[in-house]
Model the fold of this input.
Amino acid sequence: MLIKIHSTWHDQLSDEFEKPYFEQLIGFVKSEYASKTCFPNGNQIFAAFDHCPFDNVKVVIIGQDPYHGFGQANGLCFSVNDGIAFPPSLINIFKEIEADLKQPFPRSGNLERWADQGVLLLNATLTVRESEAGSHQNQGWETFTDAVIQKVSETKDNVVFLLWGGFAKKKGAKINRDKHYVLETGHPSPLSANRGLWFGNKHFSKTNAYLQSIGRGEIQW
Done:
């Protein structure tokens, strides 16, 4: 099956693309995009991989679903297109960066700048129907993204995994913690953050300190 994804990822995941579940998944996605309004745009479904080649992966952040509002999703978890109002979770992420790193609140919610530095911004489900959160769950995407996480865990060393909230922690349960640096905290959503489960986690400075310690260079958050 021909999948338009960065060649380094295609090499790593080629077996996955030939499995029956993935063929069924792509059939479902094509049908949905042909008959309904879905996000992100078709050419951005694999944007997380295209902006962060396999060889470049230094950090993995695991999200759940793409944003389902018009014009928001761009294929990177927690990220929105330029000119789009910041969703509440992204605001809280930026507030933590501001407090943790003592740097100005970011002006752009487009996190391509992170991905281009080696941050894999991976949603568990890569597509969604407009205004219907979770509408493309349980169609095969979760199996695919589990395989992505497993491939990174098995094949690479010293990757930082940021697991925010119960869903991400469960998704990352099989990461090999003997050779990777795993940080866990609450989800940045207001529901979690307002209960004291997000702010003060210092994941951004901790990530940079670890990357510096292994000679990989910090992320400009």
